[in-house]
Amino acid sequence: LIEAEGFEHFIHTKFVGHKRFSLEGLESTIPALDQLLTIAADNNVKEIVLGMAHRGRLNVLTNIVGKSYDSILSEFEDIIDPNSYAGSGDVKYHLGAYNKVKTRTRKEIGVSIASNPSHLEWVNPVVEGIVRAKQTRTGDIERSHIMPVLLHGDSAFAGQGVVAETINLSQLAGYKTGGTIHIVTNNQIGFTTTPEEARSSVYATDVAKIVQAPVFHVNGDDPESVLHVIRIAFDYRQKFNKDVVVDIVGYRRHGHNEGDDPGYTQPILYAKIKKHPSVTKQYGQKLVGEGVITLDELKQMESDYNKKLEDALQKVAKRKIQFKIDIPLAVNNEKIETTKREHQTALSEAELSELLIKGSSLPEGFNLHPKLVKFLEKRKDIVASNDGMADWATAEFLAFASLVKEGIPVRLSGQDCVRGTFTQRHMAFTDVVSGLEYFPINHMYPNQARAEILDSNLSEAAVMGFEYGYSTADPLCLVIWEAQFGDFVNGAQIIIDNFIVASKEKWDTPNNLVLLLPHGFEGQGPEHSSARLERFLILCAQENMEVCHLSDPANYFHLLRRQMKKDVLRPLVVMSPKSLLRLPEARSPKQHFLEGTFREFIDDTSGVDKKKVKKVLLTSGKIYYELDKFRRENNFSDVAIVRAEQLYPFEGEMLAGILNSYSNLEELLWVQEEPKNMGAWNFLRPKLYKVIKKDLSVQYVGRPESASPAVGSGKLAARQQEAIIRTAFTML
Question: Which of 96, 121, 182, 215 has the fewest CB atoms lying closer than 10 Å?
Answer without folding.
Answer: 215
